[in-house]
Amino acid sequence: MSPSDDLCSVLTEDHHELRQLLCELDHLTAPEPLWRSLVDLLIAEMIRHSVAEEAYLYPVVRDRLPEGPRLLDPFMDEHETIEALVRRLERHDLPSAELTRVLAELRRNICAHMRSEEQKLFPPLTEHLGADELAALGRKAAEVKAKASVRQRSSDPLSLTTLIDTGTGLVERVYAYVRGRMYPI
Question: In the CATH scheme, what architecture does the domain 3-178 have?
Answer without folding.
Answer: Up-down Bundle (1.20)
